[in-house]
Structures are given as C-alpha cells and as structure tokens.
Design brief:
Elements lengths: L1 E8 L4 E3 L2 E3 L4 E11 L2 E15 L6 E15 L4 H5 L6 E2 L7 H12 L35 H6 L3 H9 L4
Parallel strand pairs: 6-7
Antiparallel strand pairs: 1-4, 2-3, 3-5, 4-5, 5-6
The structure holds zinc ion (2 copies).
Length: 167
C-alpha cells in the first residue's frame, strides 16, 4: 500500500460555471493506493479551496470542497478491464493511474450549480440591480410599471362598482 499525502497545484480550473477550484490552487491529496487483484484501488479524500460567484447577488464566494474518492483502476487485461465499459472504471496505463479525471468528475458532482454567498442571500434589486445585502434596509423604488400606470386611474372605479360584494 502506498500512502499519498501531498499538495499539488490544480492543473486546470476544476468545477462548474459559478464555482471552481482555480487553476494552480493547492489540491490536498490524502490517498491510499492499494494493489488488489484486478488493479489499483485508490481511496481517500481530496480537499481544495474554491472560488466563485454567488448565483443570486454575483458577489465573490470563497470556500472549499472535499471529496471522498474510491476508485478502482483496472490492470490491462484484468477481468474488470474486460467486462466493464471504457469509462466506468479507470485504468492502469504504463503502471500509472490518472487521478485527474476522477477528481474532476467527483468535484463537479459535489459543487452546487447555484452557489450562494450565504443561505439567505437576498440577491439583487430587480429594478436597479444593486445587491440587496448591502443596500439600505428599506431599499425600494416608487416606480409603477408603465402598463399599470395606465390602469391605475381605472382601479378605484372598478372597486366601487361592486367587486367587494357589499349589498
Ligand atoms: Zn449572494
Ligand atoms: Zn433598487
């Protein structure tokens, strides 16, 4: 069994549109590589910092992601190699395992597609686009949609016409 405990720079940006491990960010590997009959079993955790944008207010987000990895890399010509689809298991190629794709796949699954800077992020004002988290507490606009502006004078009459159900 080989233990791998080291930090490697991320070879590329790994993640989803709004949240990712930046290229060059330190990826902490804490893995065990174990020879089994069919290949090499890699287990352990991978941790890395993430940066991105809040899906609601577009503010910056920093955090981290940890994935649990359990991945069998099959030896060439092993039964596992012969009986599984190409991309179902990894493969030992030239006595090496390529962890990058396994890590990329696991990280992408783990990251939220719509990350938020905090669970109750109020997002942006729909009228002017300022982040409501940093706006005045009573931030609002006294603007009536032009379509409603035309209707507004009619509304009191309609109400008086007996929608209220008073007899
Ligand atoms: Zn936010
Ligand atoms: Zn506003």
């Amino acid at each position: 069994m080989i233990a791998v405990a080291q930090s490697v720079p991320s070879p590329s940006r790994i993640g989803v549109d709004l949240l990712a491990i930046a290229e060059g960010a330190p990826v902490e590997l804490d893995l065990e590589l174990q020879a089994v009959s069919e290949g090499v079993l890699v287990t352990g955790t991978v941790t890395a910092p993430t940066t991105g944008e809040c899906a609601r207010c577009l503010g910056p987000i920093t955090g981290s992601v940890t994935i649990d990895l359990t991945e069998l890399f099959a030896y060439p010509e092993s039964v596992t190699e012969a009986t599984t689809e190409e991309d179902e298991v990894g493969h030992v190629i030239d006595d090496m395992v390529d962890l990058e794709q396994s890590i990329v796949d696991a990280v992408v699954l783990q990251l939220p597609l719509s990350p938020v800077c905090r669970p109750d992020c109020p997002g942006l004002c729909q009228t002017c686009g300022v982040p409501l988290a940093t706006a005045e507490p009573d931030h609002h606009h006294d603007v009536i949609d032009p379509r409603w502006a035309k209707l507004a004078p009619l509304l009191p009459d309609e109400a008086a016409d007996g929608g209220g159900g008073k007899q």
